[in-house]
Write a structure and sequence with these properties.
Structural class: mainly alpha
Strand order of the largest sheet: 1-3-2
Helix content: 55-70%
Mean pLDDT: 81
Largest sheet: 3 strands, antiparallel
Number of strands: 3
Low-confidence stretches: 1-13, 19-27, 252-257
Order of helices and strands: HEHHEEHHHHHH
Length: 257
Amino acid sequence: MPRAASPKSTPLKQIRPARRRADAADGGSAQHIGTTQRIVDAITTAIVERRLMPGTKLAEQKIADLFKVSRTLVRQALNQLSRDKLITLEPARGARVAMPSVDEARQVFEVRHMIEAALVRRAAGALDAAQLAALRAHLAAEREAVLRTDVTGRTRLLADFHVVLARMLGNEVLAELLADLVSRSSLISLMYQSAHSAEHSFEEHVAIVDALERRDARAAVRLMQAHLRSVERNLRLDPRVPPPPDLAGATPAHATA
């Protein structure tokens, strides 16, 4: 599998940290946990929104300087991201955004097929009018982002659709599992996806919600599986991965702790 070229330098302007509270010193275990999670969320968001390429180096000290925390907290965040398979940690090379293999890509989508078929089958009989209205509002946001060619916004919204649907069933374990799979899918798409039609994905989401509103479980399952197959068809087995960018700007400046 091709390796991404290493960047010449890794200034962390690509990772704009969430604002810290005025009293945010590294003092207290609860606050440490919150700070670690803030770093995890920042890097995960950058990956989901396709602003961090596979192979991008994540330098501990530079992340620590950017977030104004100790390297110990950064190391904890990187360890969590490694457990989530979003980055790799190697003794000689340090931390880098993961570069998933073709086999891993296929396995991730196989799991998504199994989980999301069951998800929409249950949702077809469980969602109430308010939840369906919330899904319609999400679709409206997707459509707006697609029309204005907001690449990062539409990427986030198209991915969030699946997690929002899972969360509506009231099963947080399911929602967290799907969020992890969607994040890994976004990373896989960075490497293996050809020119992907965001508009087509949006239209498939609309059809799924239409089926859920009709309480047609069979159609919802069929449409979800077709949607995931469509995404898979856009994956190439011989990607040419461009050099990873600098880390500048990889998280939204307006995010809060």
